Structures are given as structure tokens and as C-alpha cells.
Amino acid sequence: MVERRDALGAVEQRGVFGALGLHGVETGHVLRHQQVAESAVRNQIRLLEQTEAPVEPLLLAATDLGSFQECVDETVKGPPIRELPTPENGALLLWACDPAWSDTPPALPPVLLADGHHRLEAARRLHRAEPGTAADRLPALVVDHRRYPLTLSATHRVVPGLDLGRAVAAAARIARVAELPPGVRLAPRNGTFVLTGGGRAWEVSEVSPATMAGRLRFVPPEWVELPAAISDHVLIPALCEDQGVPAVPRFTVEAPGFEEVGLILPPPTWDQIWSGAASGAGMPPKSTHLGPALRRWPLP
Fold first, then answer.
1. Can you tell me whether residue 41 is helix, strand or coil?
2. What's the pLDDT score for residue 300?
3. Ramachandran angles phi, psi of 32, nearest 5°
4. Can you give the pTM of this predicted structure?
5. Which end of the chain is more exposed for a tag (fewer CB within 10 A), N or C?
6. At what angle do helices 236-243 and 164-172 cross, to 10 degrees?
7. Burial level of 120, CB count in 10 A (0-12/13-18/19+)?
8. DSSP 268
């Protein structure tokens, strides 16, 4: 059992550690909301081959813990076996569950894969290729999303080599572009983007329907209103083609730096995430940042 608390001692996250079987996707118990990038999957395969174990556990969100709820409620009544500080000046508390729960664990309802899509896909491919040697399960944390919802934010884009002035002019040819006053908080409204660089920022909105239709015709129809699809298939290609720059952005959960030219995206909604997971269409790569995820395995 794990519980994350903030600097004031309030519970931010609570969940159960376990091992996720790689067949969970095929059985429908693990819903993946995000498409994977082949280059990132290949990189994860190399890491798994070198280390034989993932550095981070998968993060799974459960809207219903089912029979495990009793385990969680009973376990947190006792003292934790370990307490670790978090970077936010909070604490990560660990409990050992009654062995009976791990000996005969009850089945969980379907869970959403919040973080670890590329790690999971890499492990599945590696196991299919080497069924006798590759592990058939991964460490995972299933969190109580109903009581302690995960945070939801966007993943932003930085485009190396892009000239800001020319990018603003190119954006204005296919969308409405308005410079924002200095000091304005860079949080784009739904349906808008913020183009930044050198301490300046422009709101990009009302992208041309004709441009959208032409550039999004090869993506799943469920994606046409998603910020990441519009960013990666419409705006960034249009800006890069104008300058002859490769449309290969760097992804970041933080706003682009002062010296970088980048695009700040609005976050998708939870309805879009669950809908994409349920339909199988998922979402474009690097659409979301869900958390907080564990960045190290917190066991002795």
C-alpha cells in the first residue's frame, strides 16, 4: 500500500502496489488512452533488455477498487513501515498488506493506464519475442482515482530551429493570432494554443477549417478536436514547412524556456480520455500528463 501526502499532511493519492500481467490489455482489464510512438517503444525495449526491469512502475487509475477497497481501508489504519520525503516537501508512506490479499488477490474492475504506455508495449513485444526469458508482468501502482483523482495537464511542444517571427507570420495565415500582454499567465483556453519564445506569447485560435480538414484526414476521426492532434498534424507542420525545419518537436510538461520557441497546449478533458480508451482509438502520443507518478521504486 502507498499513500502520498502533501506538505500539510493531506492525502493526495492512495493505491496498491502489485504486478500487472501483460495479458491485461487483451482481456480488457487495462484501458490504454494514448497511442504510442514507435521510436519511444524501441527505446524502452532497449532499456528493458539492458536492465531486465523497468525503472518506474506503471501508473493505473481505478474508479472502483472493488474488493481491494477493504484491503486499503484496513491497511491504512495501522502504522506505515516506511516514510519517504517527496520533492514537494510532502511524504510517501508505505504499508505492508495482509499476505492473504496477495496470496489470493481479487480481480480488479477495468483500470486506465495513466502512465507507462511505452513501457507496457515494449514489455509485451519483448515477451512475445522471448516468451521463455522475458518477464510476463510489470510492477504497477493502482490508485484510487475516485477518492483522490489524478492531476491532468497537457504535454507541451518545443520546436528546435524555428524562427519565432516567421512562425508567428505563418500561424497568422491559417489561424487567428493575437499577442498576449506581458506577464499574462500562459494557460490556453480550450480550443486555443499559445506560441511562445523570447519572453513573448501569442494566442493561436480559430484554425482554418480547410487547413484542419486537409491535414487531419489521415488521423482517426475521434482525434480531430484533440489539442495534440491539431498541434502535431496541423500547426507545427505548417510552421516548420514554411521555414524548412524538421517538424520534430521535443515534448515537455513544463512551459518552453525563454530561449525556446514552443507551443503550449490546453489539456484534454477526462471525458475525452475515457472515451478514447473505451473506443480503442486512444489519443495522439504525448497528449496528456497524468500524475503524480512514482519516479523511483520506493521499496528497500
1. helix
2. 46
3. -100, 125
4. 0.84
5. C
6. 120
7. buried
8. -
Residue 109's identity, in one-letter code, is P
pLDDT, position 259: 93
For 195-222, what is the mean pLDDT?
95
pLDDT tier, 55 (very low <50, low <70, confident <90, very high otherwise): low
The set of cell numbers assigned to 141 is 501502482
Q: Which of 204, 173, 168 is nearest to 189 (CA)?
A: 204
In angstroms, the CA 197 to CA 165 distance is: 9
Q: Is residue 114's pLDDT more than 60?
A: yes
Give the pLDDT band (50/70/90) at residue 142.
very high
SS3 content of the chain, % helix, strand, coil (to 5): 30, 25, 45
C-alpha distances (whole Å) from 101 to each of 14, 67, 77, 106, 169 are 17, 10, 16, 8, 61
What are 143's strand-pairing partners? 15, 61
pLDDT value at 53 more than 70 = no
**3-state SS string for 153-211:** EECEEECCCCCHHHHHHHHHCCCEEEECCCCCCCCCCCCCEEEEECCEEEEEECCCHHH
273 close to 281: Cβ distance less than 8 angstroms: no
Among all chains, which residue has been given the C-alpha cell 507496457?
A: 120
User: In 3-state terms, what secondary structure has residue 63?
Assistant: coil
Mean local confidence (pLDDT), 28-44:
88
